């Protein structure tokens, strides 16, 4: 690594406490700890064990497994152990094994797991546990749960809690762990208001000109405000997704790659030349556009969202404003292809915004997205 002192600092960290990095490496070398993921999931303190596990995966010593699946598997045994009723613990264990974990693994195989997906999986388990306890207080069980119980629980809990419980009820009905005739109310979709176009342009102008804002936040915010990208997608971008040739800069979000207008292009190239977290063993050869602090991992989208909100960039509202402006200027199929959206999503949003594009227009659609122009100039 460029700065070996960082690696030595890791080895020396908490050297007088059980479970430090030096002790774990010594135990691995002596065969006292099996070199397996399951063995790491049983180690305490779990944070230092998880960090070492990710370093070993990044260096090829351990087979690569999604970090959030590892995190869930590390958390689950402790939760099951805290359930007082053995029958409840058995039911929750089956639910986790045959419903929640397979869904997590399928998602990891298809794309990747985000912190919010991992958190929702744990909340499904927690709300399922709370529901079984609630049924017990009503002198009934999951097997004898009736529609009146489901409706009563629905009335007493928030929409988020209801969404978390759906998985248990659907799994229980499919597996005949409860009555097959139960009716689970449909999920309610909620949408946040988008920024106005003036607010979007003002935010874009501030990010492009305010050098007091950390450069990684400026770049991430500009990508949200120009290209309506979710942070879960932004953190998965690599430096190879930035195409720089023949004096132009393009960002590969879909097909074709989207042109990056000035001054956003210069900001993006300057940032790539000086990315964060590149001086330690964690990410020394990382291709992530936004490298994280954990080995082989990009920046956490939930952490990035919190930082953007701190500097006044409301991510959901900014995305809404950006995609609606795109749909006012280009046909929905073009926007969908270029920005990686589903065409049904862009068509629905176009209809909501009252866009005038009724079909795919002929001609050349390789255009720069609607961007920021300094106030007081006539440039476009």
Major sheet attributes: 3 strands, antiparallel
Average pLDDT value? 84
- Helix percentage range: 40-55%
Separate helix tally: 17
Task: Provide the spatial order of strands within the biggest beta sheet.
Answer: 1-2-3
Number of strands: 3
Oligomer: single chain
Q: Please state the CA-atom Rg, rounded to the nearest Å.
A: 25 Å
Structural class: mainly alpha
Strand % is: under 5%
Principal-axis shape: flat
Which sequence of SSEs, written as H and E, runs from N to C?
Answer: HHHHHHHHHHHHEEEHHHHH
**Uncertain spans, ≥5 residues at pLDDT below 50?**
357-368, 374-380
What characteristics describe this protein?
flat; 17 helices; 380 residues; mainly alpha; single chain; disordered C terminus; three-stranded antiparallel β-sheet
Tell me what you see in this structure:
The protein is an all-alpha fold. The protein contains 17 helices and 3 strands. It has helices spanning 4-12, 21-29, 37-41, 46-58, 67-81, 86-110, 115-137, 147-156, 159-174, 197-209, 215-227, 231-234, 264-272, 301-310, 315-329, 332-339, 343-353; strands at 242-245, 248-251, 258-259. A 3-stranded antiparallel beta sheet has the order 1-2-3, with no helix packed on it. The longest helix is centred in the N-terminal third of the chain and has 25 residues, at 86-110. It is flat, with a radius of gyration of 25 Å. The relative contact order is 0.09.
């Amino acid at each position: 690594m460029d700065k070996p002192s960082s690696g030595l600092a890791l080895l020396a960290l908490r050297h007088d406490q059980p479970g430090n990095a030096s002790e774990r490496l010594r135990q691995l070398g002596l065969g006292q700890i099996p070199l397996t993921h399951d063995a790491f999931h049983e180690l305490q303190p779990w944070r230092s064990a998880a960090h070492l596990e990710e370093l070993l995966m990044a260096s090829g010593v351990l087979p690569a497994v999604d970090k959030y699946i590892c995190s869930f598997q590390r958390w689950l045994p402790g939760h099951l152990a805290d359930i007082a009723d053995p029958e409840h613990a058995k039911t929750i264990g089956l639910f986790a094994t045959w419903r929640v974990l397979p869904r997590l693994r399928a998602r990891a195989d298809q794309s990747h797991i985000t912190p919010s997906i991992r958190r929702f999986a744990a909340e499904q388990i927690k709300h399922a546990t709370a529901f079984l306890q609630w049924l017990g207080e009503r002198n009934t069980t999951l097997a004898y749960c009736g529609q009146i119980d489901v409706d009563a629980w629905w009335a007493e809990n928030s929409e988020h809690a209801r969404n978390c419980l759906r998985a248990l009820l659907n799994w229980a009905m499919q597996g005949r762990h409860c009555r097959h005739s139960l009716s689970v109310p449909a999920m309610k979709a909620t949408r946040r208001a988008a920024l106005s176009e003036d607010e979007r342009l003002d935010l874009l102008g501030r990010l492009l000109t305010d050098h007091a804002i950390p450069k990684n936040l400026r770049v991430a915010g500009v990508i949200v405000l120009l290209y309506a990208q979710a942070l879960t997608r932004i953190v998965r971008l690599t430096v190879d997704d930035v195409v720089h040739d023949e004096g132009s800069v393009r960002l590969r979000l879909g097909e074709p790659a989207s042109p990056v207008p000035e001054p956003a292009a210069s900001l993006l190239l300057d940032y790539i030349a000086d990315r964060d977290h590149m001086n330690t063993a964690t990410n020394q050869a990382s291709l992530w556009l936004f490298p994280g602090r954990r080995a082989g991992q990009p920046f956490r989208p939930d952490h990035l969202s919190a930082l953007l909100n701190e500097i006044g960039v409301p991510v959901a509202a900014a995305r809404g404003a950006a995609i609606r402006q795109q749909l006012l200027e280009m046909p929905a199929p073009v926007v969908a292809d270029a920005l990686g959206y589903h065409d049904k999503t862009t068509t629905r949003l176009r209809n909501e915004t009252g866009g005038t594009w009724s079909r795919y227009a002929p001609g050349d659609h390789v255009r720069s997205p609607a961007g920021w122009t300094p106030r007081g100039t006539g440039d476009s």
